[in-house]
Design goal:
alpha+beta; 8-stranded antiparallel sheet; two-stranded antiparallel sheet
């Protein structure tokens, strides 16, 4: 079921042009140096098509809540999701939103020097200047609208992905208001956001969740919110 993404009203990148592209369940909010909506739609169709065709060959790739072995002929986006799934210890589809954001974003980088692709709270960002990202942890969270992260200029692009057991429609076995992961691999950031969020059932679990997250190679930053408690590690710069 579609849920309005009201947090997108917060976005203010005056040097970039913002546009939405929706194709089936994929709903991207993109900022780039020019309006690349047509190119973005083509990229979505390509990468969604790769995922849909692969799932027909291997249905458990879609349904499994644990990592699965994939076929040698799997397309690149499937390989990225499977690798992220295995590192995080979750099902491959836990990485799908981050993977789509990055693969579409990298396609668009052939046409723009900067791009921000947001896919349901999972973000791929390549920026030449510092950017501020607001944290949405639900209407009742004391952090919503107040806690912001600064993302530094980066050469290759990074992923900033968030999972929630209280806000998102995505599957989570935890109760975190927000579990945010930063990684140069956006599929991994997405999968790890799910894995870290799954650990947080109560405020006392925050330290355990952060310790697990920082033990995984490729994770650069962690932020966990539940109630009025926050835990963080790594490349988390509060703006």
């Amino acid at each position: 079921m579609y849920k309005a993404r009201t947090y997108r009203k917060w976005v203010k990148n005056e040097d970039l042009i913002a546009f939405e592209v929706i194709e089936k369940e994929t709903d991207l909010f993109i900022s780039a140096e020019t309006d690349l909506a047509t190119n973005a739609r083509a990229a979505i169709l390509t990468h969604r098509g790769d995922i849909e065709k692969y799932i027909k060959k291997q249905p458990d790739f879609y349904s499994s809540l644990e990592p699965v072995d994939i076929r040698p002929d799997a397309p690149d986006i499937i390989k990225a999701m499977a690798a992220a799934s295995r590192k995080a210890g979750v099902g491959p589809m836990a990485a799908v939103a981050g993977a789509v954001a990055e693969f579409v974003g990298r396609d668009l980088l052939e046409l723009t020097g900067q791009v921000i692709v947001e896919n349901g709270g999972d973000i791929f960002i390549k920026t030449l200047k510092p950017r501020i990202i607001g944290i949405y942890a639900g209407e009742k969270s004391p952090f919503t609208g107040k806690l912001k992260l600064e993302i530094a200029p980066n050469e290759n692009g990074i992923g900033v992905c968030t999972s929630s057991g209280t806000v998102s429609h995505s599957l989570s076995f935890g109760k975190a208001d927000a579990a945010l992961i930063i990684s140069e691999d956006t599929a991994l950031a997405d999968a790890m956001a799910t894995a870290v969020g799954n650990i947080v059932k109560r405020p006392d679990d925050v330290e355990k969740a952060v310790n697990f997250g920082k033990s995984i190679e490729g994770v650069k930053g962690i932020l966990v919110l539940i109630g009025n408690k926050m835990g963080s590690w790594g490349e988390i710069k509060i703006a």
